[in-house]
Amino acid sequence: MALQSLDIKRRSATTTPSPQARETLEVAKLIDVSACIGCKACQAACMEWNDIREEVGTNVGVYDNPNDLTAHQWTVMRFDEVETDDGGLEWLIRKDGCMHCEDPGCLKACPSPGAIIQYSNGIVDFHEENCIGCGYCITGCPFNVPRISKQDGKAYKCTLCSDRVAVGQAPACAKVCPTGAIQFGSKEKMKEYAETRITDLKERGYDNAGLYDPAGVGGTHVMYVLHHADKPALYHNLPKDPTISPTVSLWKGITKPLAMAALGAAALGSLFHYVMKGPNEVSKELEDEMEREDERLRALEKEDAK
Amino acid sequence: MIRNPRDIQRYNASERANHWVVGICFILLALSGLAFFHPAFFPLTQLFGSPTWTRILHPYIGVVMAVFFLIMALRFARLNYIAQRDIEWLKRVGEMVNGDDHNMPEQGKYNGGQKMLFWGLVLGMSLITITGVLMWRSWITVPVGVIRVASVVHAAAAVFMIGLIIMHVYAAIWTKGTIRAMLYGTVTRAWAKQHHRAWYRQVTGDKR
């Protein structure tokens, strides 16, 4: 068995239950967007702890650097300049990365047994040694997070520093954040802490401040405190009600048993048809007719030869 | 097998080779595709070297099948136009399945069922090829919404086609004397007269 904090509760492409006798504490990372100063220390810490370096790219006119998540960049600060209704300007900064959904679309879509797993503490992790590089995780993800490496064709994303969490440490980004905008602990504690932040924000005039822990994916193990929780799209198109796409649910849900039943019925139906109705043979009369014709022609040929 | 010089040629060598290229591709694609479709079939990936090799190879085999299917379909399309007698035949297909073909209307080179199979496969191949290309992340990038729809359609088209091919293979096994047409090209006169009488008359000039 793995380290207790890394007990696996769900495994991709696996139809039998995972061991679940032990239960570990559900964890969460809380990102308080209102306390973020956009310093990117979290990005640097992520690169350092995980030993990943994206190649230096080009500036496309925004502060996002690199300008998207990649196989070598598991978290990116997203900067949005938003004009308010009264003509003011808000600079909204959101740390983007895997949300560690309680009901993960990536895991649901993955065809390779054990390539994506969910620990009982809620962390969703990719086991790249089992990854076949099909990209179904990207198809299944409601947050557009996983990336396929151009180097090895495997999918990568934030691990929530599962290796650190396993030994009682906070993720690298949380550890390094200089303003305390990234907190880590039990999901329950994080929700309590978020409440204090939301109360504070409301007192300061952000009437719509709230917690982003979307129910459509069963809640997430990375949550945001947003000053405009009514409009998550302001924060670089954070989806308002994310769910696993119905198309993906159809593909990975009812289609599978239906298809198997239909194909099984076709194969078994064929076998039993043969057994019960017998083969479709050429009739004896026709065979005899052709046989007589053959003999007649043979006789003619013999006469010709004479 | 003793071959009768009076046997009738149903497929020439090039048509047979074309059919079997498509057939081999289809089997490989069905085995590798089912492995990704349902965890119960995932062990089939071992037939292709490894799960990752299966993922790499599947689309390339698909391209080969699409090309050879297109050639085959163009070759046989004209023979598969649906005529009135095919509709008559399809209306009575229940009698045929029940094992009694005495009252079945006389058929050309292909019967109504074979023609339905042909057009079903044309539809299936069109859908599966287009959606397969859209899902091919190594080469193609399209919006995720498109990939999601393509994934469902790809799976549905595959199941539809595997079902059709089960019927196709079974019909060939069930109807004795059929498989040789695709193995070495000929069928007996009796076979032709029994199952495809109009075609038999056309190729032999036999008026009976």
Explain this structure to me?
- The complex is a heterodimer of chains A (306) and B (208).
- Chain A folds into two domains: 4-244, Alpha-Beta Plaits (2-Layer Sandwich); 255-305, no CATH class.
- Helices cover 32% and strands 16% of the residues of chain A.
- Chain A is built from nine helices and eleven strands.
- Chain A has helices at 41-50, 105-109, 136-140, 162-166, 172-176, 187-203, 246-252, 255-277, 284-305, and strands spanning 8-11, 27-32, 76-83, 89-96, 116-119, 124-126, 147-148, 155-156, 182-186, 210-212, 222-226.
- The longest helix of chain A is centred in the last third of the chain and has 23 residues, at 255-277.
- The model of chain A has no long low-confidence stretch (mean pLDDT 94).
- In chain B, strands 1-2 form a two-stranded antiparallel sheet.
- The longest helix of chain B is centred in the C-terminal third of the chain and has 31 residues, at 144-174.
- At the A-B interface, helix 3, helix 7, helix 8 and helix 9 of A face helix 1, helix 2, helix 6 and helix 8 of B.
